[in-house]
Amino acid sequence: AYHRMFQGRGYRLTAVFDNDPAIIGSEINRHTVRAMETLPAFCRNRLPEIAVLAVPSHCAPEIADQLSDLGVPGILNFSHADLTPKKHTLIENVHLSDSLMVLSYRIQYER
After folding, report:
1. What is the chain's mean pLDDT, rounded?
2. CA pseudo-torsion sign 78, 79, 83, 86
3. How far apart are CA 24 and CA 94, in angstroms?
4. What is the C-alpha end-to-end distance of the chain, expressed in Å?
5. CB contact burial 31-66 (16+ within 10 A = b; e otherwise)
């Protein structure tokens, strides 16, 4: 939920959401984890520009559609599902497995 390079480049984490009752209410980097049910009100009041998805792949399309419907213009998707943009939302699908393969190749052939 936090990376020092984000803040140094002008990005600011404003909220963390989850649907797990065991996690809701806990703190991550000084942010209280909110219930997913509160996402619509948060988006209407705070107008976030980017949402970061780090969710199971079966949940990602529904959450991305919800974020799009709420007017979030950009989604950085770390789930294992390639998401297709809806309406005027831009989605960047991040593939950690691709990065791992590139790194493995470079270790083997570039050292």
Report:
1. 90
2. negative
3. 26
4. 33
5. eebbeeeebeeebeeeebeebbbebeeeebbebbeb
**Half-sphere exposure for 83 (CA within 13 Å, toward CB):** 33
- The pTM (predicted TM-score) of the whole model is 0.83
Rounded-to-integer distance, Cα 61 and Cα 26, Å: 26
Q: What is the pLDDT of residues 3-42, one digit of tens each?
A: 666 767 778 889 999 999 999 999 988 899 999 999 999 9
Quote the CA–CA distance of 33 and 27 in Å, as a whole number.
6
What is the C-alpha to C-alpha distance for residues 50 and 27, in angstroms, rounded to an integer? 21
Q: How far apart are CA 78 and CA 46, in angstroms?
A: 23
Share of the chain above pLDDT 70, in %: 94
pLDDT at residue 46, rounded to an integer: 95
